[in-house]
Amino acid sequence: MTAIVLVHGGWHGGWVWREVEDLLRARGHRVFSPTMTGLGERAHLAHADITPDLHVDDICGVLRANELTDVTLVGHSYGGFIIAGVASRMPDRVSALVYLDAFVPTASGQSAFSIGTPERAAEVRASMTGGYLVPPSGLDRWTGDPEKRAWLASLATPHPIRCFSEGPTLTGVERAIGRKMHILCTRHSPSPFWSFHDRYANDPDWETARLDCLHDAMIELPEATADLIHHMTGPVP
Description:
The protein has 10 helices and 8 strands. It is α/β, with parallel strands linked by helices.
């Protein structure tokens, strides 16, 4: 039985993976979709010192507490920073990394602001009204379905700013993880994630895939998303 840990992106929580969780469990996988500190149902724990490294702590704790090995880590958007950080700390427990329309940091300290697009960084900064929390923005890029967008808006929570201005600590060992995939959501354009996808499209150490949807593939195309994750738990093609 393969263990899969689904790591959400900015402003989201573990709740966003519900449909994908059910589909993967139906295929016999053990699936975990934790919510990181200060977000979702853990929004009451938000504070000014939350950084990507703290969120890496959250996910490493899930692996330890559940005694998980041979783990497929899936990171959506900002979650790409977190799965890279977890693999950097616990490479012996991770067998595959799946970056779902996500950032792929390659050096310690790289952040969403430093390796994303200047336009998106400016949009996020401009949305702040004071304090250390960034309100949700860009929901029209998450899904094109008005009902689903309203549902996402009802559950999305503000995100600590240091998660975007700072990056995780990396050792470089995460690059040696045996299987890696970058999935691009092609209707999410322009986005910071095209450059990562293009970089790895011809890299023999990576697999790539494209989904015809906006940014929240787990909401827009849950079956196709689950299929790609399931593929990464199988033998190397």
